Amino acid sequence: MEAQLMKQESPLATIINGKAIAKDLESKIALSAEKLITENNITPCLGVIMVEGNPASEIYVRHKRKKAESLGIKSIIQLYPADVSLDVIQEKITSWNNDDSIHGILLQLPLPEKQDAYPLIQTISPSKDVDGLHSLNIGMLSWQKEPKLVACTPSGCLVLMESVIDDFTGLHAVIVGSSNLVGRPLAQLLLQKNCTISIAHSKTKDLGALTSQADILIVATGRAGLIKADMVKAGAVVIDVGINRLDDGRIVGDVCRDEVMNIAGAITPVPGGVGPMTIACLMRNTIYAACMQNDLLISSVIE
Length: 303
Ligand code: NDP
Hints:
By secondary structure, the protein is of the alpha/beta class.
């Protein structure tokens, strides 16, 4: 494994091509959607609830809808104005929980004015919780039980890491960012792969001293350029989850890619790294959810 992370002939890090890896997964998802439709008369369907007012969320939801359609998954987008009451959203979730034609329910986050999404997420049926954020799914992940559904970004990050790491045993994974959406579930997934985990956040002292010990460094902070070359161990696998729009319109991650390229063993680009995998994993979760709700063996539908 060390050998795999060491840089060999090339002085630059291997680019982990999230777009291409996502494409492979998507072709399996498209086949499974077709199988569900033709053999089981089930059209997999994703319901997305979005409250208006966050331009980035609007773009993400558009991408999700487009991707679902291209893979044969139906999508329904329920839009609400920014001043919608949480009771109205709650009613929609309840009605979709009881609707057998909707297999996945996603509440696009964040809610306006940083309202707490926790109570709403708890009302999504765990078997329809395609974002993997319901306490039952999070709890099962912590218990090392097979959760019904695992959060999409951490699942996607793991697939990207598996493309360059054969054996995770004993590797030190440092996760910068401790959110419920990314850092925490990812820590559980990597613990299950027998990594040693450190989680950093905004109060961590001497971040660089910690990150420079990482065999695997995952950064999910939303702080453009936070990770510089002198904070990275030679040969490390670097997964950049951050999405930041600069004033000039460019989208960049949390890692200074140009300089870190000279020291890391492998790195994900932004855009084209974690983003496409997150959407692919959401689609895969929708297929999983459709299988579970119809008592179909997942492995008989998707590889
Ligand atoms: P949150 O704001 O929920 O969490 C950010 C985390 O980063 C917090 O734990 C915070 O610490 C930590 N943090 C902030 N500043 C620093 C710092 N200077 N040093 C160390 N830690 C810091 O964000 P999300 O987890 O939702 O998202 C993180 C980033 O990932 C965003 O850019 C988001 O757009 C992107 N993202 C990308 C996805 C994709 O598909 N590519 C999917 C999901 C998110 P503290 O807890 O102390 O505040």
